[in-house]
Amino acid sequence: MKAVASRSALVPRLRAVEAVVCDTDGVITDSARVHAAAWKTAFDGFLTEHPPDDPAQRRPFDIADDYLRYVDGRSRRDGAAAFLAARGVEPTAATVEAVAADKESLFVERIRRQSVDAYPGTVRLVRALRAAGVPVAAASASRHARELLVGAGVFGLFDVLVDGAEAARLGLAGKPRPDLFLEAVRRLGVPPTGAAVVEDALAGVAAGRLGGFGLVVGVDRALGPDTRDGLLRHGADIVVTDLAELLADAATGTDGVRP
Known about the structure:
The protein is an alpha/beta fold. The protein contains eleven helices and six strands. It has two domains: 2-30 and 116-246, Rossmann fold (3-Layer(aba) Sandwich), CATH 3.40.50; 32-111, no CATH class. Helix content is 44%, strand content 10%. Strands 3-2-1-4-5-6 form a six-stranded parallel beta sheet. The longest helix is centred in the middle third of the chain and has 19 residues, at 93-111.
């Protein structure tokens, strides 16, 4: 009876879910902004030194649009290749590696210089899920996910972590392929049809949909004019601006959380 009573704290769409997989950057920790800033410095520096032939392709990296469209949720190399190709630059292995390495160095420098916090709404939801007996996994294409979760003081809230290091070890394909999420629910012992994926990236919600997950939740931190619609188009069933909206006492229905 305890689990049933606890599940009443969740919105109806979550009450039948057997497990939840949360992306890390932008969903659990406020680290997406640090990733975006590091990408901007790396890409803008590259475009200045190697300007594309087409002047229209030389515009600086846009933290809002370009980050969500090309790199959010993807591995460093996949993100670098996608953005460079979009700007008319041939994404050779050497070029991709150089930009990815520059971004990695910038990101590591920044997270070790400034703390990255967990979103309070996410912590509240994860605690409610655990109280209801629902296992929760953290997933990330980043090799720094463990460091970020430990630094934010929330690593112990998650039953499983599948990060970029594990993805490389197991040969898992990056998003929008669902491999990362499927490995997470496999470790939790739950089929994807009985699990929910929570993602803020377009590639991430697409991966959740492709993986056959029972519920795909999009998180719109950007609050841009097209962000919510983009998440829905790419596969989200519902979109929230903060995970606390998935708690019954906080849900407003404005994002379609309630049936």
